[in-house]
Each structure stands twice: as structure tokens, then as C-alpha cells.
Amino acid sequence: MDEFDLVVIGAGPGGYVCAIRAAQLGLSVAIVEKRAEPGGTCLNVGCIPSKALLHASERFEEAAHGFEALGFSTSAPKLDLNAMMAFKDNVVKGNTSGVEYLFKKNKITSITGAARISGRGRLEVRLGDGKTRSLGAKHIVIATGSAPAMLPGIKIDEKRIVTSTGALMLDKVPERLVVVGAGVIGLELGSVWRRLGAQVEVVEFLDQILPGMDGAVVKQFTRILKKQGFKLNLGMKVAGVRKGRKFLQVSIEPAKGGEAKEIKADVVLVAIGRIPYTQGLGLEEAGVDLDARGRIVTDGKFATTAGGIYAIGDVIAGPMLAHKAEDEGIALAEILCGQAGHVNYETIPGVVYTTPEIASVGKTEEALKAEGITYNSGTFPFTANGRARAMNAAQGFVKILAHASSDRVLGVHIVGPFAGELIGEAGIAMEFGASAEDIARTCHAHPSLSEAVKEAALDVDKRAIHM
Fold first, then answer.
1. How do residues 331-356 score in pLDDT, each as one tens digit?
2. For position 273, what pLDDT does the model report?
3. Could you tell me the CA-to-CA distances from 461 to 94, 232, 408 in Å, in that order?
4. Residue 13: what pLDDT?
5. Which residue in 55, 413, 444, 446 is the catalytic one?
6. Which of 343, 365, 399 marks a domain boundary?
7. Residue 154 falls inside a structural domain
8. Would you call 163 helix, strand, or coil by DSSP?
9. Same domain as 189, residue 47
10. Residue 123, domain extent
11. How far apart are CA 142 and CA 19, in angstroms?
12. pLDDT given at position 459
């Protein structure tokens, strides 16, 4: 039996980052991953390939429709979907190869196979050739991520009825795409195929898109999506999908009850969320408890109910985000080595990589009202930002929420160009307990998109300069 200080199950962002940090701190580390390539869902069939297709499709649409306003024109671009998919695959390969290099650099033993906890400090790994490898560990970390949630009675074939995985691998642009779920994944992938020529229709059970986001963001982005050509069926549920020889018939009906109607589709994307992946790990036998939603129960330091077993990332409570898992992986590795590892869950950003982008960190206005917290709000539109206008990308706004008495920043919400980059300033400000006044009095480069953040901070005190 091979003995290690730490064995990590799952080589996604949480798992591989935890393994690297533990190795940096001097632990002997092994990581077990059942995929042939490391990186988990994020690098292989999630964050990275979707962003590659989002970027490529944005450039395609810009070449088709966006140059005339800048003073020049080109012939209509011709889509080579195979080449675009090859670009996406090369991006993925570059990232997964990078992780493999980091394992070697940090002397981490990487094992391809399916791990199962067989006893206290013991694992059995079923290898690809059918053989079994036994591992011993002082500490075991479960970082197995999540899987797409399914709709009852609807069978996924990843060809015509697909999850996000299949939606990243279509061999042709569907004429009609029905997206079930108006969350981040559904809107991002719907955006890719709309730009490439599909008619996109979204079905959402709730009466709004992007559940949980700030109301002002939802309101403006709903208008933007409709202007882009998305057809939104809000407050509706999918009752069934019937396969025909030429197309799919999607039956939808009001979520609160009512008359059903049918939508034709060439492809149906089911994007109703994700669920923790905990099957086949031997958790029950090991004494690892799950909560009512199937998540692993942990204490404040990632320890499960079984001694020596820990969990991070999508399998525990909290937002299912790669960067959240990474921070938890680093914190846990440091805790295991006697350091004060910590994650501030109040400053974990969320980003939707549509056009324009959406980014958020901290509390929404609705949450502050529900919690009875008094606050002031400042907003600044990108239409009043010189750089955004010069980029012909002036949609959206920055919104800052600050405590009414202390002025401490409680939440920042952005719709606009490069919102996913701009939100970093807000996260740092909140991490250091900054006030809106602190942001407002910090000199920002001109002309820059970040000036909109400063102006929104000024508007908290109702003294924005350019509005």
C-alpha cells in the first residue's frame, strides 16, 4: 500500500489547488481523478471551453454586424464550426497540460482511476485496466465537484437533448435551440449558439432570469436579452419533450398551472442547475453525513463527520463556483499544516460571461431589505463613461450598495463591458472593509471603464461628477 500525508479525490479546481498548496507546505500528496485529463468539469467541459466558444462567437458576431459603426466594413464572415471547436479543444488541452506540469513540478502523485474510501485512512482506486491500487492517507479530501441536474422523464442523449457538456460539442448550429433554465449556464451557452445563427428560446420556472441576482441587474439584462433576439418564457415549466424524426416537440406550461403549449426545437439544452457528485465514494460506510440536498456536511474547517476526511467545492454548501473551490482548497491545505486557513464567503464574486458581462459581489439590494440593513445606493451608467463610448460598448451600469451609517461597501453589481474584470476592485475593497468614500477618493485612470466604479461610489453620496 502506498502511503501519503494527503490524498485528494478529484482533480478539479478545488482538488488540484488543494494538492498543490499542500505539496508546497511539505506534505506528500496524491491526487486521484477518474477523467483521463485533470481539471475536472471546469477545465474539460465547463468554464474554460465555454469561455473559448463565448469569445470566438463574440468575434464572429462583431465581424458580421459590429464594424460599420467603427468606420469600416468587411465581407460577411463564414463560420467554420469544426475549426472553432478545434480552437476550443486546444484551449482546453493547454490548460489541462498546465495542471499536469504543476503536478510534476510539485512532486504530486497523479493517479487516474475511480477512488472509494475503504476504511479510516484507506482508499481503493479502480484503475482503467481493471486493477485496483490501495492507498493510505493521514488525510483524505473529497473534491469531486458536481453534475448537471436532470429533469424527470427527460432522457439526455447529448446529441439532441443535451446538458452543458453536449452543448459544447454540437456538430452543427441548430436552427432552433430551446434552453431550459435562465441561469448562468443556460444564458451563456444560449448566447454562443444565438450568435452563430440559432433562434434561442428560454424556458424558466421562476418569473425572472438569473435567480438570486440584484433586481436592477435582472431588469436591465432582461431587456438586453430580448433586444438580442432571445425569446423568454418566464414562469413556465417543461412538461415533456417528444422526439420526432425531424425535430423535438417541447411541451411547456405555466409553473402555477394552466394551459400547455408546444415549442419546436432541433436541440434542447437542459441547464437547471447542478447537484453534488458523491456517488460511489463509500461515504455512508465511512460515516460521512449528507444534508437534505445531498451535500457533504462539514464544520467550519471543512472536516466531515468522519475523522480524517474533509470536503471542499461543489460537494459542500455554498456557491458552485471554481474560484470558491480553489479558495477552500488553499484554506484546507493550510489548516492541515497548522496555519489559519480562511475563506470569506461574503466576498466571493459571481460572473455571467454574456455580452455585456454581468458581475456581482456581496449583498443584493433585495437581500439587504430582507435583512433589515439600512443602506445607500449609488449607480453610474456606462453611457456616461468615455472609454465605454469609445469602445461602442456603453450598455449597462455599476451599482454600489453601502451601509447607511458606516458607508462600508456591502455589495457591488455591474452590467457592462469587462464586468468580470472590474469586479475584482470591488472584491478587494470589500475584503479590506473599504467604504464607498474610499473608492470615490482613489484616483482611477482616465479614460477607463474603472472610472464607472469610482463614479458609482461618488453617487452613493449623490455627488457623481459625470452624471
1. 999 999 999 999 999 999 999 999 99
2. 97
3. 47, 37, 12
4. 98
5. 446
6. 343
7. no
8. coil
9. no
10. 2-148+275-343
11. 11
12. 98
Question: Based on the domain organization, do 286 and 140 belong to the same domain?
Answer: yes
CATH of the domain at 83: 3.50.50.60
Whose cell is 479614460? That residue is 447
What is the per-residue pLDDT for 313?
98
CATH at residue 443: 3.30.390.30
What was the pLDDT predicted at 455? 98
352 and 339 within one domain: no
Residue 380 shares a structural domain with residue 415: yes
The verdict on 14 and 99 lying in the same domain is yes
Q: What is the pTM of this model?
A: 0.97
d(CA 259, CA 46): 36
CA distance 306 to 143: 15
Residue 426: half-sphere exposure toward Cβ, Cα within 13 Å = 34
Do 142 and 7 lie in a common domain? yes
Q: Which residues contact 276 (CB under 8 A, 6 or more apart)?
A: 144, 145, 146, 293, 294, 295, 296, 314, 315, 316
Residue 465 placed within a domain = no
1, pLDDT greater than 90: no
Same domain, 8 and 138: yes
**Domain edge (last residue) among 312, 327, 343:** 343
Question: In 169-248, which residue ranges form alpha helices assigned H by DSSP?
Answer: 184-195, 215-228
Q: Is 446 a catalytic residue?
A: yes
The per-residue DSSP string of 384-443 comes to G-HHHHHTT----EEEEEEETTT-BEEEEEEEETTHHHHHHHHHHHHHTT-BHHHHHTS-
- pLDDT for residue 144: 98
Q: What angle do CA 363, 459, 379 make, to 5 degrees?
A: 55
- Is the Cβ–Cβ distance between 52 and 91 less than 8 Å? yes
Cα(26)–Cα(337) distance, rounded to whole angstroms?
A: 9
Rounded alpha-carbon distances, angstroms, from residue 200 to 133, 190, 223, 237, 244: 48, 6, 15, 16, 19
Based on the fold, state whether residues 6 and 131 are members of the same structural domain. yes
